[in-house]
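Appendix C reproduces, verbatim, an entry submitted by the partner laboratory led by Prof. M.T., so that reviewers can inspect both the input and the predicted structure.
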Amino acid sequence: MKKRLATLVALPAALLVPAGAALAVSAGTFGAALHAVPHDHVADGGSNVTGQAALRLTGRQLDVRISATGLTPNETHAMHIHGVTTATNECPTIDADANTGDPIDPGTVVEGVPDGLISLSEGLPDYGPIDVSLTTRGPTGPRSGLDLERFIAADAEGAIEYHRSVTVPQDVAKNLDNLHIVIHGADLPGDADGSSQNSVFEATLPVACGEIDRITR
């Protein structure tokens, strides 16, 4: 795979650019319980990604810790804070599996026939666009959303332990408890090369989602 998976496809701008703006910021401790995005266990090989996120906000500085298990071992997994900052967002239900003709769907997908998986675009109406890219180094804006070389890789057991402090936009800081953390990426059965990194559909597939809740101010 080349350095940027984004070169394989031109994703709609709505997937990358957050909406809304706010002037005030917030502070406090937040958390998110990460649950598997609903799916058919045959379609995705029986994965069950779960985890926890702990966040501490001071002004616009956000300290993020994420632990998760059940991921594709030894592969990088894009992680983001998603959401429309001016609205309350939700994690998708299986009803989002509508197959409306996503441009990154594999050739085996039949438009209008559910495939048991919720793609990046199918989940977008629920969890919203990328606000913050939880990379391990470098920029953290929406435009880093598919720079897979800078996201964390799961270990041989499919687990991650992520920790980074990042500066977030004012509207994200103000509305953090309206937003979500989403983990992406799964190597699906029938993939001849045994990796999610060469397929935009697999690399961007949302596998876990958690609503961010305020714990203390």
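The two ends are 43 Å apart (CA to CA). Additional entries are available on request from the coordinating office.
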